[in-house]
Design brief:
The complex is a heterodimer. By secondary structure, chain A is mainly α. Chain A has a domain at 6-43: Orthogonal Bundle (Histone, subunit A). Chain A contains three helices and three strands; from the N terminus they run H-H-E-H-E-E. Chain A has a two-stranded antiparallel sheet with strand order 2-3. The two termini of chain A are 42 Å apart. By secondary structure, chain B is of the alpha+beta class. Chain B has helices spanning 2-13, 18-24, 75-87, 194-212, 251-270, 316-324, 330-341, 345-353, 357-365, 370-378, 380-388, 399-410, 416-427, 433-440, 448-461, 463-470, 477-487, 494-504; strands at 26-36, 73-74, 91-92, 99-102, 112-115, 122-131, 134-147, 151-155, 167-171, 178-184, 224-233, 243-248, 279-282, 289-291, 304-305. In chain B, helix 9 (357-365) crosses helix 12 (399-410), helix 15 (448-461) crosses helix 18 and helix 17 (477-487) packs across helix 18 (494-504). Classes of the chains: A mainly alpha, B alpha+beta. The interface between A and B is large, with 37 and 61 residues. Chain A: InterPro entries: Asp/Glu-ADT_sf_sub_c, GatC. Chain A: Its EC number is 6.3.5.-.
């Protein structure tokens, strides 16, 4: 009856870099199922000729002039980094293994 | 020379001969080009975009994606993109929006890149290029606006490469600089000329964007970057699987990357193997393309509309205002210059192919005749560029120096042979032509006294030739002129020498 499989939940979790236990996979699959079922109810509404809503606020063309504003001091910027070196953000190696 | 390098690679890695490959298979090209705009500020915040600033000094809560920060689109970047779209004959969207492209890679602090997905700002354009006297229409699928990523420095591996690195250091100054992506539709029908068409398209695109004044489009500085898609198919059959080669950062590399993929893929197809849809990386030093990460998970960027940025509805009035500001585009400009320079179609095409339009114009502006400027750039200097495998514009000689050189030839201070030696000196960094000529002692000998002595000696050494000339056979003077030239190490003016000889022997 489930419309979303454990594998699909695992795939989504991987894409979002979320660590999920086996038990949680079952729990989330069930919960997502409820959400998808609710969406089906919404899908029953006839929306022919209705523009899809892109944004909740009715604003268009909000632009900024190309005028420089002060940036943050570097010390403040790097203060939020877990680790730094040579005035840069230091991050773990990017590729898991040599390609 | 290039041919030889290619030959040895062919044996190493299973490449077909290019001409043979295109006899059997038909290439289909596709090009994706990223152009960094030269706005003063970033795409969604007021941080400066100055190149070469100290690391992480041009960042703020918006481009660092600190919680609660709200991006606002840069109007100048939108206008620049619309101008590019118009110059590429695109339709400008009536309704368009930004989207989040989600991926996890530390070059973006946000864990997504703000880009555009199904509703690009500009669509369905074209660029016409001429190769070998034939016109090819390269259709543009879309032009969209996104933001550049930060710069990563890979530490611990070999020479800054990502493979084998133990850690990476990130500078976010570049993160958020407006980036325009221009994607072509697949381009079939170029046959053996696929590499040249790819190069001509990239050059034309660069020239168009440069003429608009919205980017400095310096490939060597990374403000114009190319990805080359290529597939092969047998005539009459469906298009093959394409590879995407990234990191192609010069016009010459675009040509080489296409050529390499044609040779590599055709060898695989001949052997009955299949082509994998994969990302490859161009190797500037060897001209090869190499596979990227092997078992990459199929990319799923989970695009969704960017909720923090309002949708855009470029009014038709605004679009027309921008259209009215478009400058003379490169194609028109070339037609005008061709007329001004009195060049034939073929000659002008050579100028374009050599990427010498701007160089020649600058040389003419510096005071040389068009024919003088064309002669050096298409002749001796093209030859030097080929020899060293450089782009013409990368040679260590400026249009002003070429104008000075030709001026010295016009004044009779240099002949062509000496001028070539002066070029040696200029390219070696010895200074402007006049300095080089002075330092190397390369001026034409105008001291007629010294020339007369040399002529007397030549006559004495060649009495039989001298008799012939006395007898009226003036063509024989060539032998004596040659002897004088040799004695003066090429520094005599041949016309003057001839005159002295004939005066003495008649």
């Amino acid at each position: 009856m489930s419309t979303i499989s454990r594998e699909e939940v695992a795939h989504l979790a991987r894409l979002a870099r979320l660590e999920v236990t086996d038990d949680e996979l079952d729990a989330f699959a069930g919960q997502l199922d409820v959400i998808l079922e609710s969406m089906k109810t919404l899908a029953e509404v006839n929306t022919d000729g209705v523009q899809p809503t892109s944004h909740a606020v009715p604003l268009v063309n909000v632009f900024r002039e190309d005028q420089p504003q002060p940036s943050l001091p570097r010390d403040a910027v790097l203060a939020g980094a877990p680790d730094t070196a040579e005035d840069r953000f230091r991050v773990p190696r990017i590729l898991d293994e040599e390609a | 020379m290039t041919q030889q390098i290619d030959g040895s690679q062919a044996r190493r890695s299973g490449l077909n001969d290019y001409d043979k490959a295109v006899e059997t298979y038909e290439p289909v090209l596709g090009l994706e080009t990223h152009i960094e705009l030269d706005t003063r500020t970033k795409m969604f915040c007021g941080c400066s975009t100055t190149f070469g600033a100290e690391p992480n000094t041009q960042t703020c809560p918006v481009c660092l994606a600190l919680p609660g920060a709200l991006p606002v689109a840069n109007k100048a970047a939108i206008e620049a993109t619309i101008k590019i779209g118009l110059a590429l004959n695109c339709h400008i969207a009536e309704w368009t929006r930004f989207a989040r492209k989600n991926y996890f890679y530390p070059d973006m602090p946000k864990n997504f890149q703000t880009s555009q997905y199904e509703e690009p700002l500009c669509e369905n354009g074209y660029v016409d290029v001429v190769v070998d006297g034939k016109e090819y229409r390269v259709e543009i699928e879309r032009v969209h606006l996104e933001e550049d990523t930060g710069k990563t420095l890979h530490v611990g591996g070999a020479t800054g490469r990502i493979h084998g690195a133990t850690e990476s250091l990130v500078d976010y100054n570049r993160a958020g600089i407006p980036l325009v992506e221009i994607v072509t539709k697949p381009v079939p029908g170029t046959g053996a000329l696929a590499p040249e068409v790819a190069k001509a398209y990239t050059a034309e695109l660069r020239d168009i964007v440069r003429s608009l004044g919205v980017s400095d489009v310096r490939m060597e500085q990374g403000s114009l970057r190319c990805d080359v898609n290529l597939s092969l198919n047998l005539p009459g059959e469906e298009w093959g699987t394409r590879t995407e080669t990234k990191n192609v950062n010069s016009l010459r590399s675009v040509e080489r990357a296409v050529r390499y993929e044609v040779r590599r893929q055709s060898a695989l197809l001949d052997a009955g193997e299949r082509i994998f849809q994969e990302t490859r990386h161009f190797q500037e030093t060897t001209g090869e393309t190499r596979a990227g990460r092997s078992k990459e998970e199929a990319t799923d960027y989970r695009y969704f509309p960017e909720p923090d940025l309002a949708v855009m509805e470029p009014s038709r009035e605004w679009v027309e205002e921008l259209r009215a500001t478009l400058p003379e585009l490169p194609r028109k400009r070339r037609e005008r210059l061709q007329a001004e320079w009195s060049l034939g179609d073929k000659e002008m095409q050579s100028v374009v192919n050599a990427d010498a339009v701007d160089l020649i114009q600058a040389t003419v502006d510096a005071g040389t005749t068009p024919s003088g400027a064309v002669k050096w750039w298409l002749g001796e200097l093209s030859r030097r560029a080929n020899e060293s495998g450089e782009e013409l514009a990368a040679l260590a000689i400026t249009p002003k120096q070429v104008a000075e050189l030709q001026g010295m030839v016009d004044d009779g201070r240099l002949n062509d042979k000496l001028a070539r030696q002066v070029i040696d000196g200029v390219l070696a960094g010895e200074g402007d032509p006049a300095d080089v000529a002075a330092k190397r002692g390369l001026e034409v000998v105008s001291d007629t006294g010294a020339l007369e002595v040399a002529v007397e000696e030549a006559i004495a050494a060649n009495p039989a030739v001298a008799d012939k000339i006395r007898g009226g056979t003036h063509a024989a003077a060539g032998v004596l002129i040659g002897a004088v030239m040799k004695a003066t190490k090429g520094q005599a003016d041949a016309g003057t020498v001839r005159k002295i000889i004939l005066d003495k022997l008649s």
